[in-house]
Amino acid sequence: MPVDEQSWMRLAAALGIGLLIGIERERRKGEGPARAVAGIRSFAVVSLLGAVSMMLGEVLLLAVAAAGVATLVAIGYARSLRQDPGLTTEIALLLTLLLGALAMREPPLAAGLAAGVAILLAARDRIHHFVRRVLTEQELNDALVLAAATLVILPLVPDRHIGPYEAINPRSAWTIVVLMLAIGAAGHVAMRTLGPRFGLAAAGLASGFVSSTATIGSMGERVRRDPALLVPAAAGAVLSTVATILQMTVILAAASIDTLRALALPLFCAGATAIAYGVLFTLRTANHNAPENTDHGRAFSPGTALLFALAISGVTLLSAALVDWLGTAGLIAAATLTGLADAHATTASAGSLVSSGTITTTQAALPVLLGLTTNTVSKIVVAFASGGRRFALQVVPGLLLTVSAAWLGWLLTR
User: Fold this and answer.
1) pTM
2) How far apart are CA 81 and CA 90, in angstroms?
């Protein structure tokens, strides 16, 4: 059969796949009678075997080749079982055969998968260390919970508006749960990765993804116990507000992308202001380190995420009812009251109402900003109550500048 230039390129890709994975395996092959069953030459030949099999006989010949390689691999594994009971090299050899065959149809995909396999094999020691020494059992359980919520439950949740006023979308509500879990996990990873050497600023930013108000209260309590932590604690408190803005952005993206577009400038102005104010304090405390024995705790609280989703659904239903009874004034009243407890619930509620067609994006903007404003009032009260006047005078200007920037951005879009 004639072989064109494209076929030669695909054969070269198959050879490259075998060499790439084989180089990594050769370094771990060892020497003498106890060496592994395959090295760079074996992997290169097996990858070419898969490619040639796909060229000549398609799937049938490839199956015969795979059966033959599997038999040889089984014999080699039985010979080396006592020295090395692992199956990594043997499975990688079979996978290389399939990747060589795949290169004859989808060369970019096969090459990308081969690179991923090589990286995974080369990172063996780091992965083992991370799983055995770094990752805690609780973090593993949290990762499994997040995976189940995202990959198992989310696809099964119906994507339609139900209930009174058709105000609640179960898929959107569960998406909020997944986002809350993911954001909490991201904050936890940031805390573990950055460590305490970056001080309370990093801790405040990471903790703000769980609750900015609670973070401000916690930072205030630290200042009461140790007044020397005033400036770094203030940086952490203000940076927690950045997490609030980021969460609002993510929630709007999930609930109503049109509402996010309408509020893009106000959210950007608020986030940029909070970052600038927080960074200013962080730079003043660059040499300050947080305590070394930090309790990492859980990555997130599933119960809190579920309660948050239920609260959002309740607020959405209440807002829809008030809109039906009182018009836009009812939505504004609901947003103002809800924002005292949580700005995110107001944000998600407004986005859901836009998604269901109950209100327009223009009508949703004002309640979201009112919720952010009343939530800022709650944070100011907490700052005074937890950390006293000195702490509050450091934090409150940043909070006021942030919410003022949001309103300024809204005025500029009108």
Assistant:
1) 0.55
2) 12
